[in-house]
From TrEMBL, chain A:
Family: Belongs to the ABC transporter superfamily.
Name of the protein in its database record: Branched-chain amino acid transport system ATP-binding protein
Domain ABC transporter, first and last residues per copy: 5-235
Keyword terms, alphabetized: Amino-acid transport, ATP-binding, Nucleotide-binding, Transport
Parts forming coiled coils: none
Domain of life assignment: Bacteria
UniProtKB/TrEMBL annotation, chain B:
Record's keyword terms, sorted: Amino-acid transport, Cell membrane, Membrane, Transmembrane, Transmembrane helix, Transport
PANTHER family per record: AMINO ACID ABC TRANSPORTER PERMEASE PROTEIN, BRANCHED-CHAIN AMINO ACID TRANSPORT SYSTEM PERMEASE PROTEIN LIVH
InterPro entries given in the database record: ABC_transp_permease (IPR001851), BCAA_transport_permease (IPR052157)
Source organism (scientific name): Roseivivax halotolerans
Transmembrane segments: 6-28, 35-53, 59-81, 93-115, 135-159, 188-209, 221-247, 254-277
Name of this chain's protein: Branched-chain amino acid transport system permease protein
Signal sequence residues: none
Pfam families, sorted: BPD_transp_2
Membrane topology category: Multi-pass membrane protein
GO cellular component: plasma membrane
Length: 236, 289
């Protein structure tokens, strides 16, 4: 089986300072892969490099076996990848409907399909209907995260990269937000790479997990194994 | 009647200040680039208009020439100066010094080509006529006010109702998120420089036909733009618009109380008052962005 997303010997950093090195990750079709690790372990850098936001110092990124290392985020998005960034992935000065309109325009969703896509997302996350015309700055943290996930789903991606979506959210709210995404994974074959610090909640929905420590992969395996192993728990 | 005369003059000046300052504020608010050479854009547009008009090509070619000069300069300074400086992770101060340097170079170049003295474009629109007893207004005053309404109204519609306008507002909020959306911050910034440069063109042309030009005019324009941006609220386009109008009116109305050489001091008195009493400006955010 060809992984939908794969990195080979990936290394990246900022201003000459190495943050991740020799990262080899595979994400299989319709899989939820959870990446966990301490603050500063390099999880977000890994995700940003996969999405073309950071140019790697070494190694390569592959989507469906194709080398996409030199592509920019727009080109990667066109291959069916979307990213929910860390923090609140919304523009405070724009209304929710503007954010969705801009999100579809940015990745080239044809005009004729935009209304239908919007309805599809509002069907998955119906609560958004209540605050479509409000500026994002006036929304609660949970609502902003919902908009961020909704925007990422608009192009109907095959691969969803999520960077710590639980930050600032109660565990119940986090699970409520992930439930529709999990449903898409099960029903439509969406592959999800989930970076999380909230290990307990993340492992509940993961098929596989990997631990990143000091910029390198320290362990990879089944979520159950990770939850019960004291030596592994120390890694994160 | 003197007060009414000064109010009309102040409105004309304020309209021109608003156009120029909104261009600067838009560029700074969206890109965080302290575009000190915005004054140079003004000077280039004004001298291009002067040159083409004096060469006898007529008003429309002169307007097109001024627009082309301003847009070309805005794009060139963005791609050839700011992008390389930012690529090397140049600080805010580095960008400012680079921009300041370009502004000085443009001033000297204009001085070499056109001389250092004042030049003026004479048109029939510059001549004042008595529209009420004791109230003299040149048609250019109405042109200035109409230009401000049309250009700033168009800018408002553009920012609110087009995808590019939304992208521009998004860039001012969070450049990295713009990339995550799949947009290019550099391309959006280039568009911002085009719009910011176009906004100074009517002000530059009208100034060339009213008060006249000299190569150092860019500095005055820049100081006014900076003052209006701070008084209006850093990064707030609508606040800057309002501040430009207020500063123009205040400068003119001050003549009721002080001699003409002190009018510019009024602008800076207002600026200092805002810095001390309301540092976030008229419509600015309460905290630094």
């Amino acid at each position: 089986m060809t992984p939908v997303l794969e990195t080979r010997g990936l290394a990246a950093g900022y201003g000459g300072r190495s943050v991740i090195s020799d990262i080899n990750v595979t994400l299989n079709p319709s899989e939820v892969l959870c990446v966990i690790g301490h603050n500063g372990a390099g999880k977000s850098t890994m995700l940003k490099t996969m999405f073309g936001l950071i140019s790697p110092d070494a190694g390569s990124v592959h989507i469906d076996g194709e080398d996409v290392t030199k592509l920019n985020p727009r080109d990667i998005a066109e291959l069916g990848v979307a990213m929910v960034p860390e923090g609140r992935g919304v523009f405070p000065s724009l209304s929710v409907s503007d954010i969705f309109a801009l999100g579809m325009h940015a990745v080239g969703v044809p005009k004729a399909e935009r209304a239908e896509r919007l309805e599809w997302v509002l069907g998955i996350l119906p609560a958004i209907r209540e605050f479509m015309e409000r500026p994002a700055s006036t929304l609660s943290g949970g609502q902003q995260q919902m908009v961020s996930i909704g925007r990422a789903l608009l192009p109907r991606p095959r691969i969803l990269l999520m960077d710590e979506p639980s930050i600032g959210l109660a565990p119940k709210l986090f699970q409520d937000l992930l439930a529709p995404v999990r449903k898409l994974q099960q029903e439509e074959g969406l592959s999800i790479l989930l970076v999380e610090q909230n290990v307990r909640e993340a492992l509940k929905i993961s098929d596989r997990a990997l631990v990143v420590k000091s910029g390198a992969i320290a362990w990879t395996g089944e979520p159950e194994e990770l939850a019960d192993n004291k030596r592994l728990i120390e890694l994160y | 009647m003197l007060a009414l005369q000064l109010a009309v003059t102040g409105l004309q000046t304020g309209a021109l200040y608003a156009l120029t300052a909104v261009g600067f504020s838009l560029i700074f608010g969206s890109t965080r680039i302290f575009h000190f050479a915005h004054g140079a854009t003004f000077a280039i547009a004004a001298y291009f208009f002067y040159f083409v008009f004096q060469a006898g090509f007529g008003t429309v070619p002169a307007i097109l020439g001024a627009s082309a000069g301003a847009i070309a300069f805005g794009l060139l300074i963005y791609w050839l100066v700011y992008v390389p400086v930012q690529r090397h992770e140049g600080s805010f101060f580095t960008v400012f010094v680079a921009s300041f340097g370009v502004g000085i170079a443009v001033q000297n170049l204009l001085g070499m080509v056109f001389g250092r003295g004042f030049v003026t474009v004479n048109t029939s629109l510059s001549r004042s006529s008595e529209i009420l007893p004791g109230l003299y207004v040149a048609p250019l005053a109405w042109v200035a006010i109409a230009c401000a309404i049309v250009f700033l109204g168009a800018l408002h519609l553009f920012l609110r109702h087009t995808h590019t306008g939304m992208a521009l507002r998004a860039l001012s909020d969070n450049p990295e998120l713009v990339r995550i959306f799949g947009l290019s911050p550099q391309r959006i910034s280039a568009i911002v420089f085009v719009i910011g440069s176009v906004l100074v063109v009517p002000a530059a042309i009208i100034t060339s036909a009213t008060t006249g030009l000299n190569p150092a005019i860019g500095h005055h324009v820049m100081l006014i733009s900076l003052a209006a941006s701070i008084v209006g609220g850093i990064g707030s386009v609508y606040g800057t618009l309002l501040a430009g109008l207020i500063l123009g009116l205040a400068e003119s109305m001050a003549l009721l109380f002080v001699a003409s050489q002190w009018t510019e001091a009024v602008t800076f008195a207002i600026l200092f008052a805002f810095i001390l009493i309301r540092p976030s400006g008229l419509l600015g955010r309460a905290t630094a962005h």
